[in-house]
Amino acid sequence: MQEILRSKHFLIPAIAIAVLYILLVTYLMNWSLFKDTLLGAYSVIYKWRILTGLLQGLVTSITPFVQILLILTALLTGINLTLVYLRLKAMRGNGKLNIMVGGSSMLAIVGSGCAACGLPILALLGLSGSLVYLPGHGTELSVIAVLLLLTTFYYMIKSYPTEQVCKLINKA
């Protein structure tokens, strides 16, 4: 299993998905500005500065604890999705293919944000105001998402078809 987790066929997609996840969360939290910047009649340099400024502002707009949760969620989502892909690829080769759902990743995306900005992702669902009454003001959803992703990771590693996936990695 360590051979799989250290291979470039695992690490590169997992890190790429984690980066895309952080970009998705950042730009969804600032959807209006993101949309107006992209669709506006601004120069490419100005658009680039605004979009990179949003990423830099992420560090100051959320607490260090929420930043850690966001990074953990992004990494675990990348790892889990890459493991799912490798597993599906191995099962397709075997003729056994099962459907899996990544609900914890969706919960993590929906739960990302901060109480100060009104959790805009949950606002799309009409739930942001009710989270203010929770003790952590909605951070609980991110903690639950990380725990679910860790559980998913543990069970995927425990029941992984190692021989088939190692053959796939060594072939590539």
Please, what is the average pLDDT? Answer: 74
H and E order:
HHHHHHHHHH
Distance from N terminus to C terminus (CA atoms, Å) equals 17 Å
Estimated share of beta-strand residues: under 5%
User: How many β-strand runs?
Assistant: 0
Structural class: mainly alpha
Give the oligomeric state of the chains in this entry, treating copies of one chain as homo and distinct chains as hetero: single chain
Low-confidence stretches: 98-105, 109-120
**Residue share in helices?**
over 70%
SS field, number of helical segments: 10
- What radius of gyration results from the CA coordinates? 18 Å
Name the overall outline: globular
When the domains are counted, the total is 1
Main beta sheet, described? none
What's the helix and strand layout?
Blueprint: H1 2-6, H2 8-29, H3 31-39, H4 44-61, H5 64-94, H6 103-111, H7 120-123, H8 128-131, H9 139-158, H10 162-171
Structural write-up:
By secondary structure, the protein is an all-alpha fold. The chain has one domain (2-171). The chain is 77% helix and 0% strand. The chain is built from ten helices and no strands. The protein has helices at residues 2-6, 8-29, 31-39, 44-61, 64-94, 103-111, 120-123, 128-131, 139-158, 162-171. Helix 2 crosses helix 5 (64-94) and helix 5 (64-94) runs parallel beside helix 9 (139-158). The longest helix has 31 residues, at 64-94.
What brief labels describe this structure?
globular, 77% helix, 172 residues, 10 helices, single chain
In short:
By secondary structure, this protein is mainly α. The protein has helices spanning 2-6, 8-29, 31-39, 44-61, 64-94, 103-111, 120-123, 128-131, 139-158, 162-171.
